[in-house]
Structure formats: structure tokens, C-alpha cells
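Continued from yesterday's entry.
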Amino acid sequence: MDPRRGKERRTSKKAGAGTPKGSAQSARGGSEKPEAFSPASGAAISSSGRCSPAGKSVPKKSARDPQKMPPGPGAKTAPLRAGDSPPLGAPSADERERQKAPSVPPEGSEPSASAEPPLPVVRCRRPRGTGSRRGGGADPALERRSAPRPEEVGSPGRESASGWKPRQVLKNLKLSLGDISPAAEVVNRVVDHLLRRFQSSDSEFKGISVLHAGSYYERVKVSVPNEFDVMFTLKVERIQLDEYGNSGAYYFVKFKRNPKGNPLSPFLEEEILSASKMLIKFRQIIKEEIKNIGDTDIVVERKKRGSPAVTLLIRKPKEISVDIILALESKSSWPVSTQEGLAINNWLGAKVRTKLRRQPYYLIPKHAKDGRSFQEETWRLSFSHIEKYILESHGQSKTCCENGGMKCCRKDCLKLMKYLLEQLKKKFEDRKELDKFCSYHVKTAFLHLCTRDPDDSQWLPRDLALCFDNFVTYFLQCLSTQQLKHYFIPGFNLFSSDQIERVNKEFLFRQIEYERNNGFPVFWNEF
């Protein structure tokens, strides 16, 4: 039996071959070149850079109808070669004539799930004090974005260029000490109890330790402290990683040598460390132990398909969700797929990059998607600890946002964007289009944007509204081009068609565009 086939019989639908390199298209992520869909009306496609660490310039584009994106007046198009299909959404000659007639949409109308009327566009400048990505020279071409009403247009440096007040939103989102302390106390007590259980037993997980991760510990949590992420890490030595397909992110794990007495031997299947077996055992121990935690009402939520987390729901005194994730810790060199990732040389510096790449990396039992099924024996790379470090030390200046140091609005922009996605998911919770989008997509886009705009002067607090608008523009571009490269694994595309369907990206694009055109009404739903 080919060990790369893993536990094929465990998959919800048999995945076929064990995907040697070059196969398993669904695991490739970024190996395909996705086709950009036509963005919705009035969308801003920034000229500042694509969704990649390189930050190279791309031609400016103004968006039109979500289903059809005709060339503008005077636009030149290349003739089609024999056998070529016209571009997606390309109009006929008659349609182009009809589209020349002006159309004025009803003000403030909400987008449908399929189309939206065209809106005007306005040119807006980047925040004052910013130059090229290296900090010198003038700002490049002016950028285009969806226009607010004429009376709402402000000048750079004002609270908002479109009438809404981001500072007030952030004030509403600020977590109070009275909310944080009780929630953190309950979570810490539960985590400490589980940790003692794992460390005191003679089980396979005796050497486990805790690594706090996620938005709460990165200090970018928004709204209420009701979700926590905790990694239970287990050191493994002398392991060999066999890449699953050409994903760059998913691997089979083997031991180079398997001496007698290896506590993980019970989880081996034909030399492969079974992710599914370890996760089942890990989950079983947690389910048994939470019964022994007094004064707390806790249940283990039903396992989500393909999820690596064991989710605890603490129901008293307040409802809190805690994702506990098993992770293997390896101190060997990072895999080859990460060599071009973590592009922070022009932002945090080459020395910091070298230092970070000497840190361990982690592997979590995340199943690779294989068509409509999952390969249950794969492990996925995780760099949560590096992401946490970057967010804590986010400035080009070492004293950025410290007492007495220069302030920036990077984390404020991240909080606003996370809250925007969170509120949209809540607004459409009875639909499925936004189910696969998560805060990690927002954080990844944010890290790319910081790479593109590395100077602290490009993130001045007085320019919060414009910096956030740049972030929204950038995220819309990622959706439009269907390209969001993993920050550490550039070959893995988080927005590829097999990760998230195109229709879902179009839906989110239209909703974000509507929010921006109308002053983000979704921000005020709860206040």
C-alpha cells in the first residue's frame, strides 16, 4: 500500500490516488492561475499593488456591473485569436451602445446577490506624508474608488472622507476591562486544568505545552471577548515531511527514525503519523476531562468537517467559545515552500526575517481538501506564533505605538476590517455564501498590505479613514482577481476556486462595495 494514500478509507468520499507531487489539484491552492471576475460597480482596484508580497504596480481599473465589465469609452481591446472565447462578461456591440447612456442608481440601494447598478467614481489621494513604498518620491498615480455623495468628500487627514466616523466605531468596539477579565479568567482556568491532565498522565501527550494564539492574544479582538484560540503543542524530533500534491501547505509526517519507546508509535500507520488518529485521541481525553472541571458548565461542540480544533462551549457565567488545537512543534528548517514567503525585508528588516525563520514551525491536523472529500492524514503548516510577533512589533520604527514612540493606525485598520467581515457574516448568517470566509483572510491581506506600504508615515493616525479605504480597496482586488497568497507560503492561494467558490467571492465583493459606498451602515447595527 502506498503510504501517501494515507487513510483513504476514512475520507467522506474516496479520494482516489495518494496524490504524488504534481497531482491533487485541489490541494495546490496557488498553482492555478485564476480568472479575475468582473467586479461590481464603482469598485476600486488599486494601482498600488497586487495581493502578493512583491507589491508590484498594476494598471488601475474601475469596476462596473458585477456580471458584465465592458471596456470604457475609447478602450482598446486585442483581437481574438481563432478559437478564443470572448472574455467573461464581455458585451456585444449592441450592448456597448446601450451602455453609453447614463444611468443614475437610486441612492443607498442595497445590492442584490446577483447584480448592482453602476455608481460614479471619484479620484482620491493617498494619505498625506506618504510617498513610494520605500518612503521617497511622490505618490504614484491617483487611485480610483467608489464615490460617496459629493458633499461627503473630505480632504486627506480628516476623520473620514465619506461621512462615517471610524474613530467612533473603534470606540464602540473597545473591550472593557470588566468584560475581558472574567472571560480570560474562566478560559485560563479551563486551559490550565486540561494542561495538568495531559502532563500528569502517562499518555502519548505527556510533553504537551500551551501556546496562546488568535485575535484575543494578538490584541486585535473586536466586539466582545467570546472567542479564544489555544494551541496545545507537542515537540517532535527528526521528522520527514512529504508534501501532499503541490500544495506547499499540507504534508504527510514521518519519523526519520522510530526508536522503541516513541510515545507516538500507536498513531503510526505504515510509517505515516496519522493526523486523524491523534485528533480522535486528543478529543477523547478532553471530553472526559471537562467533566471534572467544577463550577463551570462546559460542553464539547460537535466536530466540524475538516476542522483541526476541539471546540469547547463554556455556557456559564457567560457563553464563551474556546478552540483548542493540537499542534506538532518542529525545530528543523522551514519547508522549501516558505522560502519566498514572509517578505518583511523592507518593512521589519532582513535581520528580523532571519531571526523569525530560526523559530520553530508548527503542524496542525488539518485535512487537505481533495475534490469533494478530505485527505484525513495530512498536517498543515502553521505560523501563528510568528503572526503574533509581527502584530506586536508591527512598526518599521522599533518604538512604533510604544509609550513615547510614533503612533500608527495599522491595527485599527485591521480591527475595522475584521469587524466588517464579522458583521457581514452575521447579517447573512442564514445564507451560505460567506461561510468559508474568516478573519485569517483579512489578516493575510493585512500583512501583504503592510509589506506593500512599509513606512510608518503611510499609516498616520490622522489618516485612519483613508488607510482603511486603501485596505478595503486591496481586499476587493484580492476578491476580484481571486488571488490571496498565503503570507508564508506564496504558492498557496487562499482564494483559489477549490478553496472558495467564485460565486461566493463575487457576493462578498458586492456587499463590501455597497457598505463602502454608503458609509458602512453595517458598523452601526449593534450600537
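--- second protein ---
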Amino acid sequence: MDFERKKRPVTPVSSENSESEDEKEDSRRKKKYRKQKFSDDWLQLPEFRGWLEKIASDQYMCKCKACNSKIVCGKSELLKHSRGKKHMEKVTSIQSNTSLTSYFIKKQNENEVKKVQNFEVRLSTFFAEHNVALQVVDHLVPLLKEIVPDSKIVQQAALGRKKCTGVIKNVIAVAIRNDLINVLKTTDFSVMVDESTDIGLQKTMCLLTRYVHPSNGFVKTELLDLIKLDAKDCTAENLYIHFRQVLTEADIPLKNIIGLASDGASVMLGANNSFASRLISEVPNVTVIRCICHTSAIIANKACVNLPRAPEELLRQISTYLSNSSKRCAQLEEIQEYFNKEKKKILKVASTRWLSLHQCINRILENWDVLISFFRVAQVDDKLKSAELILMDLENVCNKAYLLFLKYVLNYFNTLNALFQSKKPLVVELYNASKKLFLTLGQNFLKPEKLHPNVNVNDPSNYLNISDIFLGADCNNLLNTLPNTESHKIRLDCLNFYKTACSEIQKRLPIHENNFFENLRFLNPNIALDTNNNNRCINFTALCEKYEVDLNETVLEWRGMPFQFDNLEREIYLKKSLEEFWWDISKIKNFEDKLVFPNLSLLYKKCLTLPHSNADAERIFSDVTDIKTKKRNKLSHEVLNSICTIRSFLKSKELNCTTYQFDFNKISINSNILYDHKN
């Protein structure tokens, strides 16, 4: 079925109706447009940054700071404005001119950054000085931020374990080492070298330098490097190659070395094929000094060989018996209290400690009756053979006599040893102290007329009668109560001790007249300003030849020195320390503005640089033991070296983490320096 579509009739549209329709269409379009508010994200866009500004009173409008005009908010509108020729010219002119306000803001930001860096450096110095694990900083800094929320410096600090390690290794230690290298390049110095004695796969060689500081005249000893060695090759050749490499890389002239100190090991100071022989071949005038602390300990050990081993074994047995049981220690304290003795532990003899034997002997003798009573009880209660043997040795009066003798004689060695472990410059006292030790021991068994450093100590005709040999007041009193046979044997053993000790002193210590160290007495202020020429008799020939100083001018300056000052000035100078005295003397000028004592000043600086012992090197190895413990065994050698460098520097300058001020002008702190990706 077909359907026809019906057409609707078309009604004509009048002009009035068409106009009304257009107006309605325009109104519909206007209603669709929505005003856009200002977005803070626009300020961060690179095309708007620097010239776009928000208007607080109108959120639909923004401002161009360059053109000083308002713009309708909208990203497309802003982009159109940014591409305008007038706008681009304005922005270019503003960027070329820095405002005064921005200058002060920049300065303020730089000061804040330096304050934050100073906080991080000082805190890292604290970790290095006090041997605190570096992982602690991961909790310490956040904790400080919680405790001190109102401090901008603390809040801005970003110090973690890795950054703290970088500050210690690549900033503080590098700055300290650079300062030291700059001084050594132009200053005479001595080196102290020692090798570690541990049984690890890697050994270390400590390289210390000693010099007179050119700005204040004080003698300083600082660590230059802690050199890593292969335990399979610690020959003198390899040690010297590593030593030479450190100086070459630092561009330090080898000719500036005037002294070498080390222990008595043959690999270090042997006559042939040693570290010292190689250095002497390149620097012939270098002065080689054996550590007097090591030397005195060796002398005492060699002399003790002449005594029976029983007394020393007794010390070890007692300490071992007590140290293995807290119950026995408590019982010993009860007996000490019963005898009205001070409660003290029995010390253990340490073979690596120079002064330990004398202290252990003193402690045993103080508790001699207490120990006898203790082991009498222990023999019954413990029923151990060791307690019975110890009691037998304690009741043997001969053992007590030997210990009383050692208490008397070892005191002299320990006094010398303790004196030269000092950090003060004591090379001037080396001759007098060594000679005093020889004469003190010699007077106990030599005839008075034979008592001089060159005496033949092995000639029996030079000895006193065996009964007149002095072994200490306590020992002599005890020997008077013993039978003659036992007393005679003990005296003979002690005489052999004296003979060996004095013979070794003659070979190892500078006690003979007209030797190099005797002439160093001129450094003593009391001798330098003494008007009595007999006391001021110094032979400068060897010193001047060795250090290339004019001999005639030096002697003239020396002879005229006491008469440059009146009594009041002399008293003032004598109150000064050795370093202050010679520093002030070196600055004295005449009316022509010329130095009065130029040659003596040059000579004193070279002589004071000489080390008197190697104790500072031993202190470095003690630091290494304290720093690299079992819990910190993964600490790298570079970090260990840096921590030791910082601690050595602080000790030499008498500073600590609270007084140390880092100079930011010497080294800049940035990520490239802090984080060394090479390692």
C-alpha cells in the first residue's frame, strides 16, 4: 500500500522574527563562555616565570611586571602576551639589570647556605674526633630537626651517612692535608715512619712529619699519610717506594727532609739495605734517630735476661689465675679489705706496653701478704695444682727479692721512657737524660773514680765489692735476712743486670762527649743566656757543616747573645718556653732593621725539627685500633686515613670539634667533591 508523504506548509518568516532569533543565538554563545581563575602553577612555567604576577584583589585578572599591564586570566591569553614584541623587549631589559633587592636576597641566601655547610662540617668533625659510627648521623640529624624546629640551619641541613663520609674524606681531610703540604714545600721537616705489626692481609705504614711552623715558631707533628701496604711485600725497597711516591705526588722536595726517626727494626734503620740507607743515599745530611723509648725498653729487656725467669712467670700466673674467674676476684677483694688494703685489681703484663712490667711488679708487692693468704685458701678450696705452685713461688723469699730489685731499677727506665713520650720538643734533653741514666745505674756497682761514660763496664777491677753493690733499699734490707749463699747469688745476678744495661746504654744511647746531640745543648735557654763562658762551651762545627750555616757568624752571634739583654730582660726571656724563647730571639732586630741572630735562628729551626722519639707514630696506630673495630671492620682505608688525619691535626693544634673553624675559602663544597664516584 502506497503512502504519500504529506508536506507541511511553509510559513513565511518576517524580518522582525529573524532578528530576534539572532539575538537569542548570541545570548546562547555568551552564556557558554566561563571566566578562568588564576592558577599558581603558571608561575612555575618557564615561559611565564619572572614576569607574571598574581593580583590578590581580582582572581580573574593577572599582571605583567615587565609591561606593567593587566591581562585576563587564561593560558592562551598569557601565551599571546608573551609573544608580543613590546613584551619581549621589556623582559630582555629587566634580565640584564639586577635589582638591588635581588642582590641582597642572593647575599642572604649565600650566607644561609654557608651556615648550613658550617653546621654539617662541624658535625662531621665531631664524628671524626670522637670515633662515632657514621651511621648514627642518619638518626641524629632528623632527631635534631624534631628537637629544634625553630632553627632554620638545622631544618635545612641534609646530612646523612654518605654525605658525612664525603665531608670527612673529601673536604676536611683534604683541606688539612693541603695546608700541611703547602708548609712542607718551603720548610725543613723530619719524618717519623713506622709499620704496623698486626697479622692482617693489609698492613699500613704511618708517615708523620715534624716541623717548626713558619707563622708562630711552635713545633708541630702531623700525619701526612697512612700508607696501605701489601702484607706479602713489606721489604725496605717497597716501603721506600711508597714513601717516595707520597712525596712526589704532593710535590714536596726530598731535600727538605733533615731528620728520620723510627724504631730499631733492621728493615727501617739497618746499616745496609734498609729504609734509612735508601733515604741517606738521596739526602746525605739527614739525621737518623732511633726512638729512645723503644731503645730503653730493649735495654731493659736485654738486662732482664740475666735474672731468673721465675719472678716474671709468677706475675703472669697470678694474673691468669685471677682473670679467669669473677668469684676469685671477689674473694681477693674480701682479703684485701681484711688486711686494710686498697681494693685494686692485679694487673696483667703486656709485652707491647713499655711501662706495664714495672706497674705490675708494684701491684704484686703491695699485695704480697694478701696474695699469700688468698692462695693458701685457694689451695684448700679449689684443690688445683696451679694454686699450689703459685703459693710455693710466693713463699720463696728470693722471688720477692728479685721483684724488689726490679721495682727499684726499672723505675729509672720508665722515668726516661715517660719523659720522651712527651709531645714537647725534647731533643735538647736527649744527651743529658741518657748520660744521667748511665751514671745513675753505674754508681750502684762501679767505683766512684771509674764512673764516666767511657768506662769498661765488663772489667771486674772497676766494680765495687759484691756486698757493697746497691740494689735498692728494700732489696738490700731483705738480702740481709737471707743466708749468704742465696744473698750472694742474687747480688751476682743483679750485678750482671747492671753490666748488661750499662753496656747496652753505651752502644745505643748518645752518652759520649762531643757527639751530635751533646752540642744541641745550645737550645737550652739557661745555657744560651748564661754569662759564664765555661757553661756555654758548644762545638758548632759539626752542626754548621751538616746544615750549611756560616760557622764564624754563628759563633759570633752565640758569644754575644748573653750581653744583648739586661737582668730584667733575661728573667723575662727565661720564663718563656723553649719554642717561644727562640721564636722571639729570631725576631730581634738592630737599629738598621736587620736581624741580630740570623744564623742561630736558622740553626735552631733545623735542630728543633729533629724528633726525640717515635711515640707519635705509636699513637696513630692506637687511633687506628680504636677506629677500626670489629663492628666497623668494613671501614675503607681512605676513610680511616682521613679520620686519623683529622685527629692528628686537632691534637697538634690543640683544637677540638667545638673550636675548629673550617675555612670555606680554601675548598668549595659541592656534590662533585662530596661524592667521589671513582671509588
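The longest strand covers residues 219-230. Strands lie at 52-54, 61-64, 69-72, 189-195, 202-212, 219-230, 257-262, 287-290. Will compare against the first tomorrow.
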